[in-house]
Structure formats: structure tokens, C-alpha cells
Amino acid sequence: MRAIWHSASKNRTPYRHRYIENIHMAITIQPVSDKKELKKFVRFPIDLYKGNPYYIPPLMFDEIGTLIPEKNPAFDICEAAYFMAYRDGKPVGRIAGIINRQVNEKNGTKEARFGFVDFIDDSEVSEALFKTVEEWARSKGMDTLDGPLGFTDMDYEGMLIEGFDQLGTISTIYNHPYYPEHLQRMGYLPLTDWVEYKIYVPDAIPEKHQRISDMVRRKYNLRNIKFTKTSDIVRLYGKQIFELINEAYKDLFGYSTLTPRQIDYYIKMYLPMVRLENVSLIIDADDRLVGVGIAIPSMAKAFQKAQGKLFPFGFIHVLKALKGKNDVVDLLLVAIHPNYQNKGVNALLFSDLIPVFIRNGYRYAESNPELEENEKVQSQWQYFHREQHKRRRAFRKKL
What is the pTM of this model? Predict the structure, then answer.
């Protein structure tokens, strides 16, 4: 484990943080500097939300892997610092500061990010945490702080502002309603919103949807392909899937282009855990990938039962959720090549997946976060009964 201020750059200049203390309230902010403290950092929200019926604990080993350079290739283009707040020796909050150099270089900006943020409902605690990460960002030459965001779009992003009484997913942040109130009080302004939908699985493919699918398939000479072996999809289309994601998402808010090392990392992380019947690929006449849809059975309740640990019994809950019966499916990712967007190509994905969803007894699909301004994504649900049940927001503050 390296010191707290991780960086992929060759020239490391450790940020010497002075502890912030409030003698009256006994609040101390400490940098995370070793593996033991990092485990406390990851464990804090699991303890904070213990007993909450909507919070989904992450798997601790997975979260720790995201936060250290030895595991996460995002550190090739990012650097980060992690801090915890204590009152009288008891942890009361946490926050990460992140700088994605690739995004800054692409956009000509000097923006830092905050993420992995949790705190008790106490303004002294939240102010101490955010002042610390703001000071860290300034020391790195940054002039803006945005968040909550992760290293890349593959990490958690967006603070929940609506839907506090809805079960979360393994891909999203859950937070108490007081979080955004604290940010607004500290001068953070709305930057962008994501919305999430429950998309109810119909009894059959909607007729209009099927007509569009058939027409588009003939017009552009496209076809869906399925796999029965994970090794085949990894070998033939693994890299293409994430290269397509890069192309499809490149102009979206804050998107960080996945590097070859990151692509290899996510192939190993995601593809082995999917049920191949829930994967739909669209290829053209030359066998080039132009669309992908990947869904997984909801892991929310399984992760709640695991409480952050795979062993000794957590893996049993996870396997049951992946392989057994489940009435909710998560749309992990949907991507269409820009040359085929707004042409109805996504209809091919759902005409392929809807029969699978019906056969498996899924009642509804969780869309996971979609940028509210992304009308192309919003339009694909027009033929389905849906309910917008969550909203999350990124905030910004000029430093």
C-alpha cells in the first residue's frame, strides 16, 4: 500500500495535510495512510447505514481494489487522496479527492472531483471534510471541485436527491436526504442530473417496437448474436464491447476514455459474472460490433445479506442471485455506435432481451443512472410502461 496521495505520475509531490481540529467538538480529519485505515474508510458507510433497508453495501475487497493503484489501472490517468473524520476517536465521516488528468486535458480544465463521501448529520463534520478536500485540490493547482464522481464513469457518481425510499443497486450511491442539504449550505451548486427508471417487463414485445426492430434489421443489414461460453464472448468481442462504450459515451458529461489497461481490467471484472442469455450484441454485415446490451439479475438483496463480505457466507447469496430466481434485472450498460444512434437500432437489443426477461420472470428492469439531458437514451423507453423513481445530482464549487 502506498501513501494516501496516490498518483500515476512519475513526479510525486506528497500533500502534507495539517490536521483540522475543533477542540470544542473534538473533530479531527486524518489522511488514510495504510491498509488498516483504508479498510476503515471502506467500512464506514456500511456501519453508518446498518439496518437501512435501501442501502446496498459494496463488497469490501472490490471497493479496496478500486481505491489502490496496485489494482486499479485508472491510476494511470488519475491521482487521489482519502480522508476520514473522527470525533473523540470515533469515525464520523469520509471523503476522497480525485483528479482525472485525462478529462482535464481533453476539456482544458482544472477540475478536481470529490467522491466516496459519507458523513453523519453534523455540519461541523461535513464542513471539515470538504474544506480538507478543497484545500487538497487547490494544492494540486485545481480551481473547481465537482462530485460526487469517481475515477471514471465505471465508478459511483451522482448524489441521490429523490428516491430515498427506493432500493438501491450495486452500481449506484445511496445517501441520506441530509447530504445534498449540507452541500448546498456549503456553496455547492447543481451541475448535472441523472434519472433512473423502473421499466416494467411487458407480457410480449410491444408490436410497434417489433416492427421497428424488423425494419432496422433489414435496412442496415444488422443481426443479433448470442453466446453460450464466456470464453468465446471475451475472445471475440471483449475488447470491442468496451471500445464501443468509449465511442458511444465519449461526448457525455465527465466521460473518461477507457485505456487498454482499463479495458482488460473491466473485461475480467464484468464479463465472467454475466448470464450470457442477458447479453445481446448487434453486429453489421462485416461482423463489426455496433450495439451492446448487458443486463444482470439484481444483486441488491444479495449484497445486503453479504454485508460487504464474500466469506464465509456472502458468496452463497451472490451466487443465488446470479444463478437462481430473481424478479428484478439491472440494465448494466447499453451502448450504440454513434453512426447508428437515433436510427432505432436499440430496438434490436430489446426485441432480443424481452423474451429472456419474460422467461426468467423479471417484473421490471432498473435502468441505472441516465443523464437527464441525454434524450437519445430517454427515447428508447417510450414503448414501455416505466416509472422514474430516482434522481441524483452532481454538484460544483469554484475554489
Answer: 0.90
Give the model confidence (pLDDT) of 24-73 as tens digits. Answer: 458 899 999 999 999 999 999 999 999 999 999 999 999 999 999 999 99
- Contact 257/102 with Cβ under 8 angstroms? yes
The answer to whether residue 348 scores a pLDDT higher than 60 is yes
Backbone φ/ψ region at 158: left (φ over 0), alpha (ψ -120 to 50), beta: left
Sign of torsion over alpha carbons 142, 147, 148, 150: negative
Q: Are 162 and 179 in contact (CB under 8 A)?
A: no
pLDDT digit string (tens) for 265-285? 999 888 888 889 999 999 999
User: CA 260, CA 378: separation in Å to the nearest integer?
Assistant: 30
Return all residues near 346 (Cβ < 8 A) that are at least 6 apart. Answer: 291, 293, 334, 336, 380
Q: Which of 221, 211, 264, 254 is nearest to 73 (CA)?
A: 264
- Residue 260, SS3? helix
